[in-house]
């Protein structure tokens, strides 16, 4: 069987599968599951075209990794066949630990577990299934491999992951401000002292990359309607888990049922393979199927939230540079309690407060390094003629509050 297949990608055109191992990983049901997880969660509530999947992103990132490694080889850096393949596998599987709707339910279905931790557990599973052939990829993914620049390509402030998702998300959302020159950035990459650097003539492409990332966060990833939809979904899952804990029988697929019944921790997944198998079969369709059924449930909170999501009746959201006054929060608590005739402790299912932050570039730690024509390596934020990057290195924090739109309070309280 010919395993060197070709995929036609809407961003890059034809993508070639370069090895039998990579083909077999892609064919595995755990990887195919990524076809049923949208890359941008509920963002299609705002941008209708944002229907691309984690599968698209993983394949695109693998393709960009191949181009990057070929470019580094062309500059005289020795990269063995095993290293080349391992780097492709590492980026291919870097997001396989995402659950339904990607980031939206990352800490709701599981107990404080980041998707990277699940990705590692699934990579360990694949390593056993493929007789240890992923050992080097895991070493690169966890930054244990002696040649550290490989890990930087997988995870850093200028990694292959970001180069793909910015281009892909910009295309599918139609937000042209997110367009970046990924090809030029890749051509400008080099290695100095086992670190990825960008040649000095590529510095403006990096500036554009950071600017595009900042704009994409405010316009897409942290769009207030997306925040509203995600908070509603989180509240819905929390209500479902509460009802199940009280002995209520709720409709759910077998995989979803596991995570409604159990508070699964990372240790639990490591010790119980059943939890990992359940997670690896969980996707967006499990949630939507449940939401459709729950919209008819006698529990008024569960059914109300389900109907609102299905009909896209999103919560009203207000953003502020400062924390909201207690008076506003209390007014809303009282209005929600009266409107839905619920006890005060259940108001949390209709009212969300919090903050979100956006930092295009965090200076310090894993820097984006520029290789000057004189051979010196400097942090991109320190480049004297790039004041924009210095400004973007500051973390911008905004506070939000959201609640059902039909619940009205006095204007003077909002002001």
Name the shape in a single word.
globular
Order of helices and strands: EEHHHHHHHHHEEHHHHHHHEHEEEHEH
Beta-strand percentage range: 5-15%
- Strand count: 9
**What would you call the structural class?**
alpha+beta
Q: How confident overall, as mean pLDDT?
A: 92
Q: Major sheet: size, sense and barrel closure?
A: 4 strands, mixed
Radius of gyration: 23 Å
Q: Could you give the distance between the termini? A: 67 Å
- Give the proportion of residues in helices: 40-55%
Strand order of the largest sheet: 3-4-7-8
Question: Would you identify the regions where 5 or more consecutive residues have pLDDT less than 50?
Answer: none
Can you tell me about this structure?
The protein has helices at about 20-25, 30, 55-75, 80-90, 115-130, 135-140, 150-155, 160-175, 180-190, 205-220, 225-245, 255-260, 265-270, 275-280, 285-295, 300-310, 325-340, 385-390, 410-415, and strands at about 5-10, 15, 190, 195-200, 315-320, 350-360, 370, 375-380, 395-405. It is an alpha+beta fold and about 425 residues long. β3 (about 190) and β4 form a beta hairpin.
């Amino acid at each position: 069987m010919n395993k060197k297949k070709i995929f036609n990608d809407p961003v890059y055109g034809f993508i070639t599968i370069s090895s039998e191992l990579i083909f077999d990983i892609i064919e595995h049901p755990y990887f195919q599951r990524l076809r049923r997880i949208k890359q941008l969660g509920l963002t299609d509530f705002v941008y209708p075209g944002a229907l691309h999947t984690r599968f698209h992103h993983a394949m695109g990132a693998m393709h960009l990794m191949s181009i990057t490694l070929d470019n580094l080889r062309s500059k005289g850096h020795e990269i063995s066949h095993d290293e080349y393949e391992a780097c492709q596998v590492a980026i291919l599987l870097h997001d396989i630990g995402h659950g339904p709707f990607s980031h939206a339910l990352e800490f709701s279905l599981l107990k404080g577990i980041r998707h990277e931790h699940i990705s590692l557990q699934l990579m360990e599973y694949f390593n056993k299934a493929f007789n240890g052939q992923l050992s080097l990829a895991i070493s690169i993914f966890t930054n244990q491999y002696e040649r550290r620049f490989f890990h930087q390509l997988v995870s850093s402030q200028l990694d292959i992951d970001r180069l793909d998702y910015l281009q892909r998300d910009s295309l599918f959302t139609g937000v042209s401000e997110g367009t970046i020159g990924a090809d030029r950035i890749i051509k400008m990459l080099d290695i100095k002292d086992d670190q990825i650097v960008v040649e000095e003539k590529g510095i403006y492409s990096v500036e554009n990359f950071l600017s595009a990332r900042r704009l994409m966060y405010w316009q897409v990833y942290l769009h207030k309607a997306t925040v509203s939809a995600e908070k509603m979904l989180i509240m819905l899952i929390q209500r479902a888990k509460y009802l199940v804990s009280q002995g209520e029988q709720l409709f759910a697929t077998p995989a979803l049922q596991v995570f409604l019944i159990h508070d699964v921790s990372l240790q639990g997944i490591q010790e119980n393979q059943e939890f990992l198998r359940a997670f690896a079969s969980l996707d967006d369709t499990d949630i939507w199927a449940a939401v459709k059924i729950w919209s008819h449930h006698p529990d008024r909170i569960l059914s109300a939230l389900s109907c609102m999501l299905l009909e896209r009746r999103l919560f009203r959201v207000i953003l502020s540079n400062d924390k909201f006054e207690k008076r506003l929060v209390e007014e809303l608590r009282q209005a929600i309690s009266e409107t839905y005739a619920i006890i005060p402790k259940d108001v949390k299912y209709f009212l969300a407060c919090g903050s979100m932050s956006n930092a295009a570039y965090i200076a310090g730690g894993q820097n984006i390094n520029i290789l000057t024509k004189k051979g010196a390596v400097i942090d991109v934020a320190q480049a004297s003629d790039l004041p924009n990057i210095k400004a973007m290195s500051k973390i911008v924090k905004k506070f939000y509050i959201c609640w059902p739109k039909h619940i009205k309070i006095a204007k003077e309280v909002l002001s």
